[in-house]
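Deliverable D2.4 — example input (C-alpha cells):
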C-alpha cells in the first residue's frame, strides 16, 4: 500500500506501508480506498515545517510519520466492521492519528 510522508517543508515522499487486511479491523472500523483529502488550517504549520504544533506531532520526528499530517479524507469503504457502513459506501472521515495520506 502507498503512503506519503512529509520530509521537509512542502515536500512529500512516497513510501510503501504494510497492507491492512479486513480481518485486522476492530468493531466500528472501516478500511478505505483513499479518494481525496482536504487541507485543514491545522495542517498548514506542519506543511510549513513547524514541529510540535499539531496533534500527534511530538516535535521528535512525528511530522515524518507515514500519512502525516492529513486528517480530513474521503474514501470508498472496501471492508467494514461498522454497522452503518458497507462496502462501496463513500465516506468522509477523520484520521485521528493525523495519518490520512495513505491507502
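Example output (designed residues):
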Amino acid at each position: 500500500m502507498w503512503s506519503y510522508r512529509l520530509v521537509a517543508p512542502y515536500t512529500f515522499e512516497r513510501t510503501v506501508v504494510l497492507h491492512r487486511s479486513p480481518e485486522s479491523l476492530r468493531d466500528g472500523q472501516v478500511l478505505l480506498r483513499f479518494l481525496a483529502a482536504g487541507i485543514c488550517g491545522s495542517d498548514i504549520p506542519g506543511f510549513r515545517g513547524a514541529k510540535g504544533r499539531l496533534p500527534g506531532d511530538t516535535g521528535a520526528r512525528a511530522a515524518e510519520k507515514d500519512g502525516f499530517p492529513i486528517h480530513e479524507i474521503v474514501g470508498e469503504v472496501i471492508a467494514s466492521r461498522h454497522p452503518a457502513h458497507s462496502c462501496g459506501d463513500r465516506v468522509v472521515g477523520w484520521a485521528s492519528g493525523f495519518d490520512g495520506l495513505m491507502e
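Helices lie at 44-47.
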